[in-house]
Amino acid sequence: MRAFSFLSTDRHVAGGLLLVAFIFIAIFAEAPRDEAMRFGVKGRAPSNSPIVIALGEWRHLFADLCRASGLRQKLAVLFGPS
């Protein structure tokens, strides 16, 4: 069993430092001045209800699944690109 040392190298340290650096870059990135900031799922009406936010996209997916005709289109709705 080797003794713990601050000088010992760990392969995960570099990944952790990069992750922290990327988080700080994302937090302090400047927002575009010519665009209004909008959050949420694109193309859907905004809501303040956490239930609607959490389950709303599942409802839309189920509606798209019901509209699809045939097994191939249903699989495309479930597993295809959006």
Report on the architecture of this protein.
With 82 residues, the protein is mainly α. The chain is 54% helix and 0% strand. α2 runs antiparallel to α3. The longest helix is centred in the last third of the chain and has 18 residues. The protein is extended. The model has no long low-confidence stretch (mean pLDDT 77).
Rg over alpha carbons? 22 Å
Number of strands: 0
Mean pLDDT: 77
Element order, helices and strands? Answer: HHH
- Total number of domains: 1
The major sheet is characterized as: none
Compute the number of helices.
3
Strand content: under 5%
Query: How much helical structure, as a percent, in the residues?
Result: 40-55%
Quick structural summary:
This protein is an all-alpha fold. 54% of the residues lie in helices and 0% in strands.
Chart the SSEs and their pairings.
Elements: H1 11-27, H2 50-67, H3 71-79
Helix pairs in contact: 2-3
Identify the notable features of this structure and list them briefly.
82 residues, mainly alpha, extended, single chain, 3 helices
